[in-house]
Amino acid sequence: MRFAIAAGDPQTARAGLEILEAGGSAVDAVVAAGLASFVAEPLLSSAGGGGLLVCTDETGAGHALDFFPNMPIAEDRPSTFVEVPIDFGETIQSFHVGRGSVAVPTALSGLGEAHRRFGSLPLSELVQPAALLAREGAIVSEASANVFSLLWPINLRDPECAAVYSSDGNPPPERARLRMPKLSETFSAFAEEGDLPSALREQVLREFGRAAGGVLSRDDFDRAKPRWLPARSFSLGDSIVLTSPRIGGELVQTITEALPKSLPKAPQDQLRAIAEACRHGDRRRQDSLLGGTTHISAIDSIGRAASLTLTNGEGAGHVISGTEIQLNNFLGEADLHPAGFFNTPGGTPLPTMMAPTIATSERGTLVLGSGGANRIRSVVSQVLWRAMMLNVPLGEAILEPRVHAEERDGGVSWFEATAAFEALNANIPGFSEVTPFPRRAFFFGGVHAVWRSGETALACADARRGGAGFTDASLLGPTL
What is d(CA 236, CA 360) in angstroms, rounded to the nearest whole number? Predict the structure, then answer.
């Protein structure tokens, strides 16, 4: 049986490939790749963030691990909670950062728990690719350079934070080498403890607790434990789909089930049908988006699958001193707090749109997921629908133009005016506002997916976000 892995950066994917080649499980592979993403994709993924995993065991049974944090029990609004506007070109969006924006970092706890239950190689072996990458330095990709440029105003708030990524105060350019030797030391400590190292936990409490202008307490850490939950399961044609038990998975099911069973012939009808399905999902929405997010998919040599999504929001603009670990700004994401900042009851799980997904039919097994904030629900649904319902080859399903739509303001929709949609105007009946993108865009997420059928394995990564995929030792995947 061949194996495959796809991720948001070639260096992330190679870390997982190394573990698969050594006989590791799919969970081993995504754990190793997830650690490497902290170096290769540092503004999308961090040891200071959180995530969600869906995986299958040897019997094919599905499991979900939720390691996205809870709302801290904040006594009052913190003093170090700062609004930073980010210029996206067509619009300016504000995020809140600072020490008061930090929720409990749960990424290492979650990866450690995933390994405890479904790992096969020692954790000390899984950290080696990421530790080497941290010491020798990751090469900044075009996609990563663009993210650095976009979010640089946040990183400039704290000189130590900016210095992790740059020696001259400017965002690192493409092809720069980003070394994080202190992060390598954290990986070693993680390998010993299988959790967020206890020394780091104490340091976070000192630097981001109430006395330092944050809101975190020891009780918040004690409650922030990864939770194994039943994966959400539903049927799609002849496929069984396993996805997130959180709102992201519910909306993937809602949208996918609302998509047509066959593709309309006219491009305008295709566009409208997809937009209406996405808007139908938005009507069911209870909570919303995240910012910087990345995804890893893997299938191992005996067919076990793992789908892992990681996020750090936009980052708080502060690192844990002396560690090169930037912490999350989950408390500063407005869409995670519909009742307003610091009005969410303490201990309540913060919402997440992440939707790691696995689908199985007689034809084979598909593992997929995406970054992309509130577009995650739309883009995962569309690739899943095309690949498993319409039988479109995986690479083509990822390359097809994407649509996202929301219910607000009489119906708002965005679509990629490429391929089948390139000749369409910006009018979709029933939608008051429609925005076409002239090319495939970062906005529409990055679906990194793998496929296994019999002795055949395929990895297809999304160039919208600089992804890469490997099967055995061969680099595969569509390019845009």
Answer: 10
Question: What's the one-letter identity of residue 471?
Answer: T
The answer to whether 355 and 211 are in contact (CB under 8 A) is no
Give dist(CA 149, CA 324) in Å, integer. 19
Task: Catalogue all structural domains in the chain, each as residue range(s) with its CATH number.
Answer: 4-476 (3.60.20.40)
Radius of gyration for the chain, computed over Cα atoms and rounded to the nearest angstrom: 21
Pair 315, 151: CB distance under 8 Å: yes
Cα–Cα distance measured from residue 320 to residue 316, given in angstroms and rounded to the nearest whole number: 11
Distance CA 289, CA 64 (A): 20
DSSP at 327: B
The C-alpha atoms of residue 352 and residue 52 are separated, in whole angstroms, by 9
Nearest to 359, CA basis, from 396, 384, 395: 384
N- to C-terminal Cα separation, the chain: 29
Q: Within 13 Å and on the Cβ side, how many CA atoms surround 80?
A: 21
- Profile the chain (480 residues) by mean pLDDT over runs of 10 residues: 92 97 97 98 96 96 97 87 81 87 98 98 98 98 94 95 95 97 98 97 96 94 95 97 96 96 92 95 59 90 97 96 97 87 92 95 97 91 97 96 91 88 84 90 93 92 94 54
> Could you say which DSSP state residue 383 is in?
H
What does the alpha-carbon distance between residue 414 and residue 363 come to, in Å, rounded to a whole number?
32
The SS3 assignment for 460 reads: strand
